[in-house]
Amino acid sequence: MFGILKTISRQEWLFVIIISLAVLTLTILPTLTALTVAASNNLYYTSGSLASPVDRTVYLSQIEEARQGHIFIHNLFTSEPQIGYLSPLWAALGLFSKISGLSPLFVFHLARLLLGFFLLVIIYLFISRIFSDIRWRKICFLVVVLNSGLGAFLTIPWRQINIDNVFGYFGIESWYCEGNAFLSLYHSPLYTISQIGIFLFFYWLVTRMSAARFKETLVIGFLIVLLGILHPYDLVILGFVSFTWLLTRSIQFKCYLWRDYLKFIMLGGFMAIPLIYFAVIKELSPGFLGWYQQNIVLTPAPLYIMRVFGIMSLFFVFGFYPAWKSSDRLLKFMVIWAVISCFLLYAPLPFQRRLGNGLYLPVEIIGLYGINYYFNKLRQCQYFGLILKQKLVRAVAAIMAIIAISLTTLYFLKVETDNFLLKQHFFISREEKKAMDWLKNNTNFGDIIASTEKTGNVIPAVAGRYVYLGHGHQTNNRLTKVLETEEVFFKTNINDNYKKKWLVENRIDYVYYGYNEAVLGDFSPETKPYLNKVFQNHQVKIFQVVRGE
After folding, report:
1. CB 356 within 8 A of CB 183
2. CB–CB of 468/507 below 8 Å?
3. Spatial separation of the C-alpha atoms in residues 172 and 170, rounded to whole Å
4. Dihedral, CA atoms, 198, 87, 59, 408, nearest 10 degrees?
């Protein structure tokens, strides 16, 4: 990769920096809008997004937990017993937040932007390795970072959007962040750092593995362990793509590449370490086990995946054969990477959709390679050659193409910003924020809070405390808990013996009673002898559960 650096001029780096900063600025604009709306309306922005309605509160809960001194992270969105697990990214950000005094939300976005810039530089290095023509490097870079699928062309503009229909409103283009460079940058630092790990490993695999010595391979192995702990799904991608690449090379050279296979076996041992670690955590920690069992993310039909890449899906088909027949080893590898990832998307695994992480890079580079290949063929034709020689024609075509592929991204950002301006989602009142701050400052880390699901999605991110009911994937037996909490406990003002027993049996220490809880029914917590009011402001009351007879 250092050899590629020598081929990139200062003007190119200036282009990369300008485009990267512009794209990253686009990713932060909706958040700045949300913070401005919150400040001017006495609200608190909880970090949510239409692309990620609840995931960011999970990340913030882990940063907050680490900020409070807990290096081993827990699933705060469920009440079952559990042991902590390693989560280096969020632990590091939490420690940085504690030392710097910066808020978890600020640290989250700072990490997202810094890692995002690094990811964009790596993407350009990959592109530069494939294309020697600077113009095609720049075009390809713009396509990769801006391509956003067909969502804007298939959306009904006058249809009202809300948090319940956002996925159906945009389609997969708005939430399949792993398959889209811009949404990966927008979503979280987790996706960016995991894709950095995948891209760098694959580059090493193709360009360095055969010549690498034992110590170098050992270092790569330790980095794989780190990536596996950060995002274990990526190990499946690394393993299958790497093995297929080695097998293909063996067939190509008609020999057994024993040294490479031995290195792969060695790296496979490192890949097994995080998998074994999480398997042990799953057995020892009921709170983690429920999260694993409910984390089902299946891949939609192939037609919907093609929508994510938009017109580049078609160009990928055209570019497949010339890329495979190319003498460029990295380009051949990208063909294998794309094909194997497409198969993995439909592997019989509950997390199959995660296995498309970073797939946009080989698909879109091969697609652009196909365009370049056939573009050069057309230039040899007399009629098309005369047209394509016109600089104005080429410039207009390039600009129109960039606008077309980025339209869904721009439309999504508009809808996201409009949603924040309406103040309908992802905000709580300052009174609610003060109540959650009280929980952080006046309760113990192991205490469990009962609330509605909507409130329970925010408490861990603000207070760093366990909730009985919260995030859909991470709350064990979610449907049962929704019924118990929202249809029984908060909805009625009867069955006090049952409710007291329910609180005690589920080890609930505090009951949070705000607007979301009050609107469910006529429950009157102040009249209950088993609840002792310990906090109150204009909108929220918090009660401590009185145990004993």
Report:
1. no
2. no
3. 7
4. 0
Q: DSSP readout, 356-386?
A: GTTTHHHHHHHHHHHHHHHHHHHHTSHHHHH
What is the DSSP code (8-state) at residue 211?
Answer: T
Query: 3-class SS at 180?
Result: coil
The closest alpha carbon to 281, from 92, 93, 75, 446, belongs to 75
**What pLDDT band is residue 75 in, cutting at 50, 70 and 90?**
very high
What average pLDDT score do residues 423-429 get?
87
> Per the structure block, which two tokens stand in for 323?
């890329």
pLDDT at residue number 537? 95
CA nearest neighbour of 537 among 447, 426, 428 = 428
Backbone angles phi, psi at 163, to 5 degrees: -65, -25
Q: What is the pLDDT of residues 104-122, one digit of tens each?
A: 999 999 999 999 999 999 9
Residue 36 CB coordination number (10 Å): 13
Name the residue with tokens 């075509």: 397
d(CA 241, CA 217): 17
Average pLDDT over residues 322-343: 94
Both structure tokens of 195: 């894709």
Structure tokens at 304: 């919907």
pTM recorded for the entire structure: 0.92
Tokens of 145: 């970072």
Amino acid at 519: V
The radius of gyration of the chain from alpha carbons, rounded to an integer in Å, stands at 26
Instruction: In whole angstroms, give the CA distance from residue 104 to residue 230.
Output: 18
Q: How many other C-beta atoms lie within 10 A of the C-beta of residue 138?
A: 18
Residue ranges per domain, the chain?
A: 125-421, 427-545
In the numeric block, which tokens belong to residue 72?
């081993």
Q: Is 309 helix (H, G, I), strand (E, B) or coil?
A: helix
DSSP for 1-38, please give it. Answer: -HHHHTTS-HHHHHHHHHHHHHHHHHHHHHHHHHHHHH
Q: Tokens for 449?
A: 């809070």
Residues 360 and 180: their CA atoms lie apart, in Å, by 6
